[in-house]
Each structure stands twice: as structure tokens, then as C-alpha cells.
TrEMBL record:
Location, primary (coarse class): endoplasmic reticulum
InterPro entries, per the entry: Surf1/Surf4 (IPR045214), Surf4 (IPR002995)
Transmembrane domains' residue ranges: 52-74, 81-99, 170-188, 195-216, 228-249
Annotated localization: Endoplasmic reticulum membrane; Endoplasmic reticulum-Golgi intermediate compartment membrane; Golgi apparatus membrane
Identification of the protein by name: Surfeit locus protein 4
Membrane topology annotation: Multi-pass membrane protein
Organism: Suricata suricatta (Meerkat)
Domain of life: Eukaryota
Protein family membership: Belongs to the SURF4 family.
Amino acid sequence: MAGKPFLRVTKQYLPHVARLCLISTFLEDGVRMWFQWGEQRDYIDTTWGCGYALASAFVLLNLLGQLTGCILVLSRNFVQYACFGLFGIIALQTVAYSILWDLKFLMRNLALGGGLLLLLAESRSEGKSMFAGVPTVRESSPKQYMQLGGRVLLVLMFMTLLHFDASFFSILQNIVGTALMILVAVGFKTKLAALTLVVWLFAINVYFNAFWTIPVYKPMHDFLKYDFFQTMSVIGGLLLVVALGPGGVSMDEKKKEW
């Protein structure tokens, strides 16, 4: 298979790269909370009328929660707690920034949650490896469903990239992208499909979200920067799929039984 030589060469490094990509949006957002403390606090205060103290507490929670979660994930300490904390940050921001009513941003946040689910599944597998040889049938089941849920949520990112116009390139992109999304979601030829999506999404991200070409003082700079790192996090989730495989609830796994 085309993807096997790549996997052999990158086997040791791929999970580390995947985790770094996955937490990149939280790292960027945590740093942004520090440098834009006043702006973020004033936005929350104005939007929710919660007062200076609560708005400041919100910014502080986002700053500490995200940076602490990133450090724990990268250091491989208390990863499960870090994932739950980052899940909480996603939920908090979804409500606070009214993302719940913006379908595109909601789907991207759900895709980000899918990446965290895969990270949680990876941390469970690491924990189980300490007890090699001990039967863990019932315990491994949640991990398999985490991988399934993670794969399904990840493809939501690609649904936000579909363009409904009549140009040849858009039609081709939609057909190929949809086919790859289905393959990842159902777990068929999963590693190759996920790796192809990584390449495709990275190219789109660099082309459309080139925030470094926009002056820092322009609002579009922050918007594209946010989009860029959120997309990198989804790429990290897909790289975890490439590194770990689709899990037990997938067509690839069922083929082994046939």
C-alpha cells in the first residue's frame, strides 16, 4: 500500500507531531488571552453584562486552562484530565462566544472535540500497555467507540470546506473530499484516506489562512490566525488516526474477521 512506507519511516515521530498539531489551537488561544486580556475581558463584559470581575475570571480560566492542558499533553502527564479540561474550554467558549448559533464554527469546534477524543483514546491505550497480557475486553470497548466518535467528528471540518458552485475545481474537490470523508468515518482504508486528507487540508490551510500576509493591526489577521491553528488541530487529529489506526469499530477491523 502507498501509505505503508511513510508509516514505517514516521512511526516513532508521528504521534508526537500529531499531539503538537492537535494542541496548537489551544496553545495559540491561551497566548492570545494573555496579549489581548483587555479586549477579551471587555468583549465578554459587553456581550454578557457580567461585570469586570467575572469577565476577568473567564479570561484567566481560558488562559490557565488551555496552557496547562497543552503542557500536560505534551509532557504525557495526566493526559486524560488535560483532555477533559480542554473539552470544558471548548464548551465554555462555544457558549461565551455564541458559536452555538454559527453552524460553521460549531462544526469546527465539534471537529476539534473529535481530535481530543482520539487523544483520549490514545492515552487509554498507553495506560493499558502497562498491563500487557491482562484481559481487557470490557475496558477496551470505550476506547474503540472514542476512536469511532473522533473519526466521525473530525470529518465535520471538511463539511465546512465544501463549496457549492458550478466550477470544475469545486465539483472535483467536493467529490474527492466527500469520498475521503466517508472512508475515514466508516473506517475503510482509513490510514491512507486520513493521510490524503492531511495533505489536502494542510494545502488548503496554508493557501486560504495565510495570516502572516496580513498586517497584525487588521482584524482579518486574528480571524485567519484562529482559523489556521484550529485547522492544524484537526490535522493533528487525522495524524492520530494515521498513527493509531481506526480502532475496533471500523470496516478495516471487520475485514480481518472476514
